[in-house]
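Reviewer comment 2.1 asked that we show a complete input and output for one of the modelled complexes. We chose the uracil case, as it is the one discussed in the main text.
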Amino acid sequence: MTPALIIAKKRDGLELSREEIAAFVQGFARGEVPDYQMAALAMAVYLRGMTTEETAALTEEMLASGVRLSWRKKVDKHSTGGIGDKTSLILAPLLACCGLAVPMISGRGLGATGGTLDKLEAIPGFRTDLSLAEVQDITQRVGCVITGASDEIAPADKKLYALRDVTATVPSIPLITASIMSKKLAESLDALVLDVKFGSGAFMKSLAGARQLAHSLVSTGRRMGVRTTALLTDMNQPLGRMVGNLVEVHEALDILKGRGPADVWEVTRELGAELLVSTGVATDADAARTRLREEIESGRALAKFREMVLAQGGDLARLPAIGKGVNVTARRGGCVGEIETERLGLAIIELGGGRKKMGDAIDHSAGLEMLVRIGDTVQRGQRLAKLFGPEEKTSHVKPLIASAIDIQDSPRDPLPRIVERIE
Ligand code: URA
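Response of the prediction step:
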């Protein structure tokens, strides 16, 4: 196998064979194909796309780069990436309370979007680099675990994910499909739900693009024998109020305590209901919603989250409080129209809450609290958002946030969060 010839073939828009994809991915996972050649192939795929067969081969070869976990009644959800999306932190313990096993393999921040692993690492001591034996042990004992791809589980994605983040090769349907599905299929799941986001803070800006991605994900899951459904959810504004790492852990804790923003609960509940129905734990969506609410109201979901954090070495008693924050105010009165949500994610990276290059350290305290939503009426000088982070950075980022929130004269209707279901 000559990697440069395979890169050239994709660069020229030709279809790669399974053998070529297998040799490239396995070589990359073993460290024989260097990062720069993988990055070049990722760019060629980004520009030229992949056929369904190529995407399936890429997914299967990335899956085959590591072992597959095996348990019974295992479920998971994965999001295609958004801003303020902390649903995994709530859903994993919630589903474990319903008797399901949740061996969740999550990711770090990608492009402007936040990553579940980075959020959880805001909890002092929390480990996201568990060995296969630890993942199996914690899932069996506690019922849920949230960890990263490793040298044993989907190692090809572990390496390619980090490369894509810094080589502008993220928003590609085949690369997103193979990245998500290789991790999820490694868990040997019974059922999977995907949260496919569209809008200004998502990789897929249009509903049509998100629909195409959802079909690619769902058909890959079904082809591999996993009951897979997807919800298309709006990402034209952050999910909930908090965006960042530490602040999102606090907001997830609020939801687990039965408080917090309604939209975060709505998306979490609907994703959870998909899995309770798919696995037969609930007879229909209404019964599933009731069950999920009960697990929150009884305090069991919060207790399960604490148990998982403890099992992964985290110490919630040492979780830092949210800082005082710096206000971003409206330069004029009117109605909140568009929000450039991706720019909010980039602002978090500027504050130190995300990475500009592979291996950058994260400042978990960097964050943002949105104080307005699309459709809200605001007065001149009213607070739009609060910024958390080091003072020299917040003053630099303030104008970026203000410019991301468009205030118009005409009123705007708020958008529904969940727009479509794909089966
Ligand atoms: N989440 C992933 O795990 N991979 C992607 O490519 C996008 C979102």
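The first helix runs from residue 3 to 11. We note this here for comparison with the apo prediction described in Section 3.2.
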